[in-house]
Design a protein that fits this description.
Blueprint (H helix, E strand, L loop, with lengths): L1 H27 L10 H12 L8 E4 L2 H4 L4 H8 L3 E3 L7 H11 L7 E5 L16 H9 L8 H9 L3 H8 L29 H16 L3 E6 L8 H14 L2 E4 L23 H18 L8
Parallel strand pairs: 1-2, 1-3, 3-4, 4-5
Length: 300
């Protein structure tokens, strides 16, 4: 009798566990079935941009750490009066960009979407290619396993840290004044060879281009200065896709007018720009927006 009672207790416990996981999965389920590399970072940025007044942004920047190190919305506003937000996240992949952009268009009507090109060379690592078959089954069947870190987002919303307050105040830009010079010399050596974009990346890039057209926004691809990350082969790869699809591509690694000083304008020896370098990139972008798009100066 006691044995049967224990069996019923175990069965009741398992049933309760299944019900709890099912309920939690409704909260943690990925939106639109989109594979997200860093669900927490994407959720944080989505939350931040939704905190902006509806339809208040002229420009939204996307990309990985090169984006949030290079585009300063506050500086853009102070010099040109254009409102913007930087949705860059660490190691952002183009699938994350698509997820963030989809969410942004629900509350914003930007005229320009700027995509920093370094994220186009990040491997998507779709879940089907992962080795842990058991975990794949759990993440597909019970989303709480895939998005368990979302609880951190709830805590961050309720009790934002000083760093998060600064991030929101900087509109997604990360202000860093440290300086460590790049000493590697010339890095954009002209060649006809190209690092072609992978089929997975172009699939999402095509979706992004279509989404921009549907929402009357211009897609602009930009490569910010970075000797550690950028090459002429990558330039050719992005230019090939952009030319084929009629999308404007700007490579600031080839533009001498921006006048990056590699002794002072990088925080980590040519990987990312510091605030000094970011101001130069943002000034360049502001002038480009002024000359090519009908944006409003909101300072008045």
């Amino acid at each position: 009798m006691k044995h049967k009672k224990n069996i019923w207790h175990c069965a009741g416990f398992l049933l309760g566990l299944v019900i709890i996981l099912a309920l939690l999965s409704c909260v943690f389920r990925r939106k639109d079935g989109i594979y997200v590399y860093d669900a927490l970072s994407v959720s944080v940025k989505s939350s931040d941009i939704k905190a902006e007044p509806d339809n208040s942004l002229d420009v939204i920047f996307y990309g990985d750490s090169e984006a949030y190190s290079s585009f300063s919305p506050n500086h853009l506003y102070s010099k040109f009066g254009y409102t913007s937000f930087c949705c860059g996240t660490a190691a952002q992949k183009v699938c994350d960009t698509y997820a963030l952009l989809t969410e942004a268009f629900k509350t914003q009507s930007p005229k320009v979407i700027v995509l920093e090109a370094n994220c186009l060379y990040r491997t998507l690592n779709e879940e089907d290619n992962k080795k842990d078959i058991v975990m794949n089954f759990l993440t597909d069947s019970v989303p709480v396993f895939a998005n368990h870190s979302t609880w951190k987002l709830f805590v961050r919303k309720a009790l934002p840290s000083g760093r998060e307050k600064r991030r929101r105040g900087q509109k997604g830009f990360v202000l860093r004044k440290d300086s460590r010079p790049y000493k590697g010399g010339k890095y954009m050596k002209k060649t006809k060879k190209a690092d072609e974009l992978s089929s997975d990346v172009t699939t999402y890039l095509n979706k992004i281009a279509t989404l921009c057209k549907e929402n009357n926004a211009e897609l602009l691809i930009v490569s910010t200065p970075s000797p550690r990350n950028w090459t002429y082969k990558k330039h050719n790869g992005v230019q090939s896709w952009a030319s084929l699809h009629g999308v404007t591509y700007i490579d600031l690694n080839l533009d001498k007018d921006i006048k990056i000083n590699w002794k002072k304008d990088t925080k980590d020896s040519g990987d990312h720009l510091n605030y000094s370098g970011a101001k130069k990139v943002t000034n360049y972008m502001g002038k480009y927006f002024r000359d090519h798009y009908n944006l409003t100066d909101h300072r008045e």
